[in-house]
Task: inverse folding
């Protein structure tokens, strides 16, 4: 039997994890002096806290023991594990998972650095589940995920770079500092890191540019698409409608991004990940 493992930065809705039997290891977020599993934090409380602090809440990867305990449990009877995680450019989670896999059962566990997070990671997991249900092997599924990682598009629109600056994750987006007043930055995932793409004068125009960039990278379809947001469900629905009207969508879902990623991008964040459906 093959088990799928991920971390909470995929932000999969409960109905997905229950249906797909995905095991999820939590990243942590510190509020005050307490480190809390991010999937146990109230989103409303967290974003209210984020708005008033000068520096982003500290976020941290799972402890090695959490992966070791889970891997030992899953491989006890010779079962296999495919473990797909947040980009190593954003977190040390994949490295910790790899070290745990090598300690517990290196021949039975494959760890993949998704070079993504949130909707990109969720998209890869949806493909993995489909492949698992089709009876594909661990090696075959890992190969599919690796191919998607190389060509998927992950484009995001944020209201401000304030939160990226607070969290020290600005990277290539820094070129926008100083000239983003009244402008909405578009960012993208570039080999696992957040980079600046362009700016939009309005949010409406920004969502249009986001779709333009997706089409440049992966074409118009058939596509698998995942849309994500932070406290802007109406905008996410609008973006989803525009995407479905513009692209040939073979698979599609919307979800909400939580505290670990949210601490760096803030409310108003909306994003889309897409890859060719045939992969």
Result:
């Amino acid at each position: 039997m093959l088990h799928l493992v991920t971390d909470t930065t995929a932000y999969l809705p409960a109905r997905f994890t229950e249906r797909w039997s995905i095991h999820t290891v939590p990243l942590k977020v510190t509020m005050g002096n307490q480190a809390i599993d991010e999937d146990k934090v109230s989103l409303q409380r967290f974003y209210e806290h984020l708005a008033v602090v000068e520096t982003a809440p500290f976020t941290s990867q799972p402890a090695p023991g959490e992966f070791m305990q889970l891997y030992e449990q899953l491989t006890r009877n010779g079962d296999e594990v495919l473990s797909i995680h947040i980009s190593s450019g954003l977190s040390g989670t994949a490295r910790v998972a790899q070290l745990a896999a090598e300690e517990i059962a290196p021949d039975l566990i494959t760890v993949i650095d998704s070079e993504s997070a949130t909707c990109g990671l969720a998209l890869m997991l949806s493909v993995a589940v489909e492949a698992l249900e089709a009876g594909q092997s661990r090696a075959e599924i890992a190969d599919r995920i690796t191919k998607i990682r190389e060509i998927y598009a992950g484009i995001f629109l944020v209201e401000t770079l304030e939160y990226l600056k607070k969290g020290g994750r600005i990277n290539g987006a820094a070129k926008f500092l100083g000239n983003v007043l009244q402008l909405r930055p578009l960012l993208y995932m570039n080999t696992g890191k957040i980079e600046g793409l362009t700016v939009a004068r309005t949010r409406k125009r920004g969502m249009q540019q986001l779709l333009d960039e997706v089409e440049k990278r992966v074409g118009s379809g058939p596509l698998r698409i995942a849309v994500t947001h932070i406290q802007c469900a109406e905008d996410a629905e609008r973006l989803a409608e525009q995407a479905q009207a513009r692209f040939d969508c073979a698979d599609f879902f919307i979800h909400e991004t939580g505290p670990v990623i949210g601490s760096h991008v803030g409310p108003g964040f909306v994003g889309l990940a897409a890859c060719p459906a045939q992969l």
Remarks:
- The longest helix spans residues 118-133.
- The chain has a mean pLDDT of 91.
- The radius of gyration is 18 Å.
